[in-house]
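Internal ticket #5521
Category: modeling
Description: The requester needs a full-assembly model to guide mutagenesis choices. All entity lines are attached below as received. Residue total reported by intake: 773.
Assigned to: D.W.
Attached entities:
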Amino acid sequence: MSEVAIVGVGCVGFRPITPELSYKELMFEAAVKAYEDAGGINPREDIDVFVTCAEDYLEGFSIFDEFVPDQLGAALRHLFTVSGDGMLGLATAYMLIKTGYFDTVVVEAHSKASDILTYMDIVQFGLDPIFNRPLGGHPYYIAGLEMNRYLHDTGTTEEQCAQVVVKNRKNAILNPYAAYGADITLDQVMHSERLFHPLKKLEISTPADGCIVMVLASEKVAEKLTDKPVWIKGVGWCTETPSLETRDWTRAVYTRLAAEMAYKEAKITNPWKDIDFAEIHDLFAYKELQHMEALKLCDYGEAGKLTEEGLTSLNGEFPINPSGGLLGMGYGLEASGLQKVLEVVLQLRGEAGARQVEDAEVGLAHTWRGIPTATGAVAVLSNVK
Amino acid sequence: MFGKKRVAIVGAGVTLFRRNLKETGKELAYHAAKMALEQAGMELRDIQSVVMGTAPDAFDGVHMKGEYLADGAGAYHKPYTRVFVGGGTGVFAPLAGWWHVASGQFDTCLVVCEEKMSSCHPHPQYAFTTIFDPILERPIGMNLIWIFALEMNRYMHKHNIKKEDIALVSVKNKRNALDNPIAQLAANITVEDVLNSEIMAWPVQRLDVSPTSDGAAATVLVSEDVAKEVTDNPVWIDGVGWCIDSTHWTDRDLYYPDYVEYAARMAYKMAGIKNPPKEIDVAEPYDPFDYKELHHMEGLLLCKKGEAPKLTREGVTQRDGDLPTCPSGGLLGCGNPIAAAGMMKVCEIFWQLRGEAGKRQVPGDPRTGVAQAWGDLMQYGSVIVLRR
């Protein structure tokens, strides 16, 4: 079985609005960058398969797949859509190369959130139409309920959650791909409006526009295309259940199962020791903590304490979300998984500039599909084959 | 296969196809998955990964429909992915199942395709008004019948094909469907019936078109090792292919589906098929409209361009002909719950190759079959080659 590497990345954004670019132009620009980064490949000849990750309602189309090929250079080529987060696309590309039939696969995911006038209504449409949707209200109440339950069960404090925001937005100042870098205080977070008690306004990631394209290659091809391949050591993904009523509200089981799958493949036995840093889905501040525990980076209920003590800050023992996370970069909708992978790739190549984590060899990327899902994915990457 | 892993189908299941089933989409997915598992002699705990195929969320009015259907499809606590290529999804989903297993990541994959079109009011066709470019096309107020009429017209004009010859496909498939217990529109009709049916958008008439439907279909895919344990009668996925053409359908000649040909060539190359008409014993090309079966036979390289109507007229595509085509009754006879309809074709080829198609069984002990679906905006081909 061939090893699989990420050999090229391209990113446009992330920014609060991009009025001068259509979603097609965002995709085109990110694709051009990625193809150039992968040694100047020609998508019309050098790419075996293209994978795009999108959901119809977020795009305003039925069958968004129709509108993808041209700007990626994929007309009359082998392209398809994964209706899911970009990291599910990454897992798909990984499997395609592992079959031995394909050497190069492109993965694309984007967000044109600024085109969406009714984002919350779309999220509302993700709820079960019979049991949950008629309850009405802003669907992020689900996050408020979950946070409450998480704090109650683990003893994590609201201040510890707020600390995640301070850390991530500060990291984002150092990231040119981030939309919302800021130097804010714990007090500012704690005093921001309680939108979904106990979840506060500044603890919620703000959507942003952007696009990420990645080129993956088999071992044989990877080393020809780049001097800095980033190897995918393991991937895992899992859907817990769509049902709000029967899921686990404190432990992010979808993340634990996805992590177990990825760690087994990557031969990770002690994540905190074996991995150098992590990019973790932080759509809401408390989710970073909950996900840290599900990823087995610490014991249940311990994540808040580690964060408070600064162990997960950029200069800490185990940096988490050096990119600034989604709180700092902006929430890229279905691209959020690739936002995570992008940062891990840049760090492992030593190209993360002012936010570079020293001597990073193994990085963890994690994503979640947001409210109301219980679906997540994990990838372990390394610059050592 | 040069050390590459082989993947087998070991079980299949299809629900009834009807205009308006009482079951929810989750329940339909559950029933199809259960039937497929039962035929495979396996249980949900034996399944390591799940793939979902289902067409636009607009039918159900549910955002992230794949997530919504997850528990019905048996994906609870499992790695689960939804793939989506419009109408091509039903044949594409098992291709996704194929790479889950062929990659060595999983030994088993349950592939479920579901469609519940009846919840879209006043008619499922309204969902299709949102598949067009919002600036260039939507303001015209076009619908699918309208653009397929353009394509059918072009195909007829290019090869000088008569409507009578195209109508024969509808007659054949609806008659084949009489033997299919799932079928929604099985009937004994004549060419005259087709030609006298209501004109929808010339040259498309009521009986040229498949109906909208609810339904689900599923298959169980396993590695070679597991296949040996669970069955003496595996059917191998020997070729997979897919291809998308440009978004700009107005820029291409609609008389021939290049994208289907490219997808077919990809699958045939993998399967080592050099002469498709000789090597393929039974075919299920996508037939949402009668002319599409002909169009797709040509795209699948089962005959020369423009020759499919002649083969149909000569009876070659009948169940007892040299190249039985849509022995299931196809979409024209069985109904068209989009993703489930494509998957139904894969199930039909599976049963035909195992000799389990009952009254629909084609004679001659078929060994190799092909199923194909078509999707997006006259733009997508997905192809699977199965062998006993």
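Resolution: model delivered.
Comment from assignee: DSSP finds 16 helices and eleven strands in chain A.
Ticket closed.
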